[in-house]
Structures are given as structure tokens and as C-alpha cells.
Design a protein that fits this description.
It is a single chain. By secondary structure, the protein is of the alpha/beta class. It has one domain: Alpha/Beta hydrolase fold, catalytic domain (Rossmann fold, 3-Layer(aba) Sandwich). 35% of the residues lie in helices and 14% in strands. The chain has 12 helices and 8 strands. It has a 6-stranded parallel sheet, sandwiched between helices. The longest helix is centred in the N-terminal third of the chain and has 13 residues. It is globular, with a radius of gyration of 18 Å. Belongs to the palmitoyl-protein thioesterase family. InterPro entries: AB_hydrolase_fold (IPR029058), Palm_thioest (IPR002472).
């Protein structure tokens, strides 16, 4: 949200960290649009499923990724990469998926703006507060498409254009293929920031969320999504393929040493090898 694929002060910094630790690795950052500005704005405005379809096409066209890849998604990029895994049926498969501060169960408040001068972010917050479930808002504002009001769950189910679908929360239209796709992951690594203030509630990064009165947190294991295993999260956990990690710091304050010592060697270095003998990695 507010980042661009290749800016050296944004995702380009992550690319540099990875390639320094894994010489010869092929790293691809998903970009939406034709310019850096298009990509940044796509983090706030657009239809998420259309963006996932663009990412699917983009990744399918990269020969070095055809045998599969490890992936790391930051903030909303985490649930978007999970959506890729669920919906891009004919695309390369994700082996390990790492998500940092992601909103897997949605957000109950408009996300805070990390950059005080980010006009697009403040516009998003203003629109979201005027009615996240209005049709024109759902069709325009990215964050509205994973906004979940715990006090109006039925309205969320009726109006959500993205999150309710990838979480298989709508009983009449659950897609069994989403669950089967998630079960192909070798690892799903859920990282929550210890001082999270942007994602409300922070437990959404671990598939936890508010109860229907917004008074307490219902942890992952007590969510209907987990108990009835709508998307394979319970299966992953019971088979040792799901890990929950806390990293100190606020939202998107990436601890470089933690990333280099705990994430890259454990989840990104066990690369899928292509015929060109290159390691494959994608990040969002």
C-alpha cells in the first residue's frame, strides 16, 4: 500500500537484500500498470481480482518461474499472493509463501497512512469512511475490498468483492479449488508485527479477528474458517506447514537482520531450480 515494485527505497530495497544473500537468484517484483506511479496508485485504487489476474498473466510469461517459486508478500500483498495461489490455476505454483503484516481476515478500520504526505492514501481513507460497502467504493477502493465490519458481517458477505470470496466465507459459493490450491503450499508463513498499528486488528495477520461485538479477538483456531477448513488453513497447520511468527516493530518496519537470518535462509533459499539453473522468487 503506497509502495512500488522497483523503487530502491521501497520493494527495490527488498530485492537488494535477497540478491545479496542469494547470489544468482532471480527475483521478480509484481508490478501493476505501465509506470511506477501506476503501480503505486494500484495499491489504493482498482479492482483487486483484476489486479490478481494481471499478476497471474505476468508470472505465467516469465520462463524462469514456470517450475514454481517462493514468494513473499508485504502488507496487502500477502493476501493478494494468497489469492494468486488460489485462483491462478494454470500458473506456476508457489512453494513457500511468506506474508508480512497482511490482512488475511480483513481490517475493521481504514488503514493508517504511513507517509503523511501521501495524498492517495488520505483520499482512500476518506472514501472508505464514507461507506466501504457502497458499490462504487467496492469497485474503486482496494482497501474496501478487504474491509470487514464485525458488527455488520452479513452486509460484508453480501457486498465484499474480494476477501469474502478468497476466504470462502460465502456458503452458497464456496470454491473447493481454493482449498486444494492452498494445500499444495509447502509452507505458509504468517508474520505479525509486534507493534502493529496500521492493521486493525493486528491478529488478522494470523487469521484472527474480532468477535461479532468487536469486544475481543477470536484466534485462528476458533474461527469458523479454520474449524470447517474453508481454505485449507487447518490442514496446513495440522500437517506442520503453517508457521506464525512475530517480528518486533511497527507495520512494515522490516528488521533487516531478522529478514536475512530467519526468513531468507529458511523459506526463500530452498529455491526451485529451473533448466537455466536459476533460483526463482516472486514478491508483491
Amino acid at each position: 500500500m503506497g509502495d512500488s515494485c522497483c523503487n530502491k527505497d521501497s520493494m527495490g530495497y527488498i530485492t537488494e537484500l535477497i540478491t545479496n544473500e542469494l547470489p544468482g537468484a532471480f527475483v521478480h517484483s509484481v508490478s501493476i500498470g505501465d509506470t511506477e506511479e501506476d503501480d503505486r496508485n494500484a495499491g489504493f485504487f482498482g479492482i483487486v481480482f483484476d489486479q490478481i489476474a494481471q499478476a497471474c498473466t505476468q508470472i505465467k510469461n516469465i520462463a524462469l518461474l514456470r517450475d514454481g517459486f517462493n514468494a513473499v508478500g508485504f502488507s496487502q500483498g500477502g493476501q493478494f499472493l494468497r489469492a494468486y495461489a488460489e485462483t491462478c490455476a494454470d500458473g506456476p505454483k508457489i512453494y513457500n509463501l511468506v506474508t508480512y503484516g497482511s490482512q488475511h481476515m480483513g481490517v475493521a478500520d481504514a488503514p493508517n497512512c504511513e507517509n503523511k504526505g501521501d495524498a492517495s492514501c488520505y483520499l482512500m481513507r476518506s472514501i472508505l469512511r464514507n461507506g466501504a460497502y457502497l458499490g462504487w467504493v467496492q469497485n474503486r477502493v482496494v482497501q474496501a475490498q478487504y474491509f470487514k465490519d464485525p458488527l455488520n458481517y452479513e452486509l460484508y458477505l453480501a457486498k465484499s468483492l474480494f476477501l469474502a470470496h478468497i476466504n470462502n466465507e460465502i456458503a452458497a459459493s464456496r470454491n473447493a479449488s481454493y482449498k486444494e490450491a492452498i494445500k499444495t503450499l509447502n509452507k505458509l508463513v504468517l508474520i505479525k508485527f509486534g507493534d502493529e498499528a496500521t492493521v486493525v486488528p493486528a491478529e488478522s495477520s494470523w487469521f484472527g479477528y474480532y468477535d461479532d461485538e468487536r469486544k475481543s479477538i477470536v484466534e485462528m483456531e476458533n474461527q469458523a474458517l479454520y474449524i470447517e477448513d474453508w481454505i485449507g488453513i487447518r490442514w496446513l497447520n495440522e500437517n506442520g506447514r503453517l508457521e506464525r511468527i512475530t517480528q518486533d516493530g511497527g507495520h512494515m518496519q522490516i528488521d533487516e537482520e531478522f529478514f536475512k537470518n530467519e526468513i531468507i535462509p529458511k523459506y526463500l533459499a530452498n529455491a526451485i531450480i529451473t533448466e537455466e539453473d536459476e533460483s526463482s522468487l516472486v514478491k508483491q
